[in-house]
Design a protein that fits this description.
alpha+beta; outer membrane lipoprotein receptor (LolB), chain A; 4 helices; 44% strand; globular
Length: 263
């Protein structure tokens, strides 16, 4: 084979390789571009989709002049049932919270009494934290309650994220006037949420980090909620164990079972 023909063949393969590389990049770009905000949110929700979830967590409440550490065990079944048992500190140990459909209960071991609480408690700060019960057990169904718009990208906890703005649907009974979510482009983990009130004032910012595989799912094992305009104040939640799809009897999530719940 003469040198000119050999060079021509080399050039041909170079062009073919370049063409394949360009087409591959275009395919990846098109796949990314075709994802809608709703599809991204759906993928994020599917990350934690499970018939049940059982978790141990440590909650640290930080204020300018004091810090409190709590440990809990939680159980959830679907989006309608959730139980939380306070393991510590000692003065709160044995306190149990239950959400069963639209009913919310609190069991107080010191007086051996179960109290029915207002349903609005789900959207209010829980036990002195900066988080609501909804935040802790993740009951809100984002794609059901909000309209979504993909607005750009940002980096959170060292990961590239989609940035999505959520506005409540007219039929949704939700607390927030707007949510801005940052969802990891690799594993579709919700890494940041900004909570705005009805006047579009920033209220809280929640950021996820310490990404781990827990219960067979890749999740952010640490969440930090920071209120706007309150220096030195925040609440951190660290998941120490997590299990999904563990069979839990429906009778577990009942008022009569609350005094019997153990971690």
């Amino acid at each position: 084979m003469n040198i000119r023909k050999k060079n021509s063949l080399s050039e041909l393969w170079r062009v073919k390789f370049l063409g394949i590389a360009v087409l591959s990049c275009m395919a990846i770009s098109m796949t990314t571009a075709t994802l809608t905000a709703e599809q991204i949110l759906s993928k994020a929700e599917q990350k934690l989709a499970a018939s049940t979830m059982v978790a141990d967590m440590t909650i640290t409440i930080q204020r300018q002049k004091w810090t409190k550490v709590m440990s809990l065990k939680t159980w959830a079944k679907g989006t309608e049932y959730a139980m939380a048992y306070v393991k510590g500190p000692e003065k709160d140990k044995g306190t149990v919270y239950l959400k069963a459909e639209n009913d919310v209960y609190n069991y107080l071991p010191k007086i051996n009494k179960t109290i029915k609480l207002p349903a609005m408690l789900l959207s209010q700060n829980w036990m002195g934290t900066d988080m609501s019960t909804d935040d802790l057990v993740k009951l809100t169904q984002i794609t059901k309650d909000y309209d979504a718009k993909l607005t750009g990208s940002e980096t959170v906890s060292g990961r590239g994220c989609y940035k999505i703005v959520l506005t409540p649907k007219s039929t949704a009974d939700v607390l927030w006037g707007q949510l801005i979510l940052s969802i990891d482009k690799k594993d579709y983990i919700q890494l940041k949420t900004q909570f705005y009130d009805e006047d579009m004032e920033l209220v809280n910012t929640m950021v996820g980090s310490s990404i781990k595989v827990m219960g067979g799912k890749t999740i952010a094992s640490k969440m930090v909620m920071t209120p706007a305009g309150k220096p030195g104040q925040k609440t951190s939640v660290v998941y120490t164990t997590m299990a999904f799809n563990t069979p839990i009897s429906q009778s577990f999530f009942t008022k009569s079972n609350m005094p019997k719940v153990k971690p």
